[in-house]
Design the sequence.
């Protein structure tokens, strides 16, 4: 028989003992910052939106222009040929003195830039929440796969015991059939759990642009801290003052308000300061006549609109209707933000209570399973009772895992509702992850085993 040489053996041992590298929450978030298309779109939308401010400011500043022309005219008269060359250069300046629409458009540009910044802040916070939700969705799906496999293994063992007991005459065929039915059910549940895990991984892939590696799970007990301040109304007040979606809607309200002023200004006169310098040179060849003139002018230019076929009045009515729409949109957003703040606050507080209750339920279900197994041994409980107790235990484990993940996401959503969610909050959650990644490899091919158990 061949034996491994010392060096290859050492390399094998090192390979088996080396830790499995896994991504944590912050690493996944960094990848999403670079690869998430939704966030990239929001970034470019912000870059485009802030340009409204310099564009509006430009309407208040002077405009300077330089124009020039050169013409040549050939003349034939009385057998003589003449050519005339004319050169003209004009430097002009115009400074608005009173253009109400320009001032309104400047204020509108300010509001549009504020709106763009607020929407980008909202997109940043939304990315944090989406990454955390997708990350914990994968962890929960992995937990479910592992629970289904553990339950499947336990039921398979109970099924084998039921068959042996039936063969020796200490149990009925009913126990075997019940265990087999439960085994078949959990087998299908494992397939569904694996499918769900793949879906959750693909959802995370949409955010980070690649199929995710193994992820670090939660480690130990979570610090179940109540929100500070522990008053719902305080969080609602903060949301009304800082929520980026609400700030963006307020900016949109201001944009619509200034649009009314822009269209109202169509009825108002405009006054500009204008100045120019023109230089004209005229040369006529054939007569040797050369002339050059320079003209400077400074003045005020007044324009009074009288009638444009009703266009200005129609635009004003349109802007007024849009302004009323923006007012209602603002009120709707405020109500939604208040609701979001309340839901997130309750999600944290009720999440704490739910985690604590499920932790106790897990202990109780574990004790119940052990008692039921003991009762089966002494003949006061049946195998169905054991199967039901085991099912309740695994349900409690799954519900506890789900409650823990929901609590963490609710913490982030509460901060997002009041506009104070930052990377530091995500980093704090990241500190509660462990060093050992969860894995959910595809199941082994146990069709032969299942068939063997089914056929006895």
Sequence:
């Amino acid at each position: 028989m061949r034996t491994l040489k010392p060096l290859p053996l050492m390399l094998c041992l090192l390979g088996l003992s080396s830790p499995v590298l896994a991504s944590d929450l912050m690493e996944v978030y960094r990848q999403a910052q670079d690869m998430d298309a939704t966030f990239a779109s929001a970034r470019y939308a912000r870059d485009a939106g802030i340009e409204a401010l310099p564009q509006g400011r430009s309407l208040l500043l002077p405009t300077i222009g330089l124009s020039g022309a050169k013409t040549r005219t050939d003349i034939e008269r009385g057998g003589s040929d003449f050519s005339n060359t004319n050169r003209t250069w004009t430097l002009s300046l115009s400074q608005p003195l009173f253009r109400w629409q320009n001032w309104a458009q400047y204020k509108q540009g300010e509001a549009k830039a504020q709106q763009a910044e607020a929407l980008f802040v909202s997109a940043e916070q939304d990315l944090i929440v989406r990454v955390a939700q997708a990350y914990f969705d994968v962890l929960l799906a992995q937990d479910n796969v592992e629970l289904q496999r553990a339950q499947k293994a336990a039921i398979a063992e109970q099924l084998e015991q039921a068959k042996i007991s039936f063969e020796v005459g200490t149990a009925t065929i009913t126990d075997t059939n019940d265990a087999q039915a439960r085994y078949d059910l959990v087998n299908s549940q494992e397939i569904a759990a694996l499918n769900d895990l793949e879906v959750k991984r693909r959802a995370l892939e949409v955010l980070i642009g690649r199929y995710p590696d193994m992820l670090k799970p939660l480690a130990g007990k979570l610090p179940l801290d109540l929100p500070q301040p522990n008053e719902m109304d305080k969080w609602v007040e903060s949301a009304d003052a800082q929520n980026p979606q609400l700030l963006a809607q307020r900016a949109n309200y201001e944009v619509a308000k200034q649009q009314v002023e822009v269209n109202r200004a169509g009825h108002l006169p405009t006054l500009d300061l204008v100045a120019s310098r023109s230089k004209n040179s005229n040369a006529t060849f054939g007569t040797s006549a050369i002339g050059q003139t320079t003209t400077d002018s400074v003045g005020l230019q007044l324009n009074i609109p009288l009638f444009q076929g009703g266009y200005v009045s129609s635009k004003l009515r349109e802007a007024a209707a849009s302004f009323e729409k923006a007012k209602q949109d603002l009120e709707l957003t405020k109500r939604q933000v208040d609701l979001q703040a309340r839901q997130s606050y309750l999600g944290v507080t009720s999440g704490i209570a739910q985690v604590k209750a499920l932790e106790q339920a897990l202990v109780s279900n574990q004790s119940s399973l052990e008692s039921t197994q003991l009762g089966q041994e002494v003949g006061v409980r049946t195998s169905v009772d054991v199967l039901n107790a085991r099912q309740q235990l695994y349900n409690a484990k799954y519900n506890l895992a789900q409650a823990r993940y929901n609590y963490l996401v609710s913490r982030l959503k509460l901060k997002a509702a009041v506009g104070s969610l930052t990377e530091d909050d995500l980093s704090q959650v990241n500190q509660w992850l462990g060093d050992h990644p969860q894995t959910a490899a595809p199941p082994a091919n146990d069709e032969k085993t299942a068939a063997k158990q089914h056929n006895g």
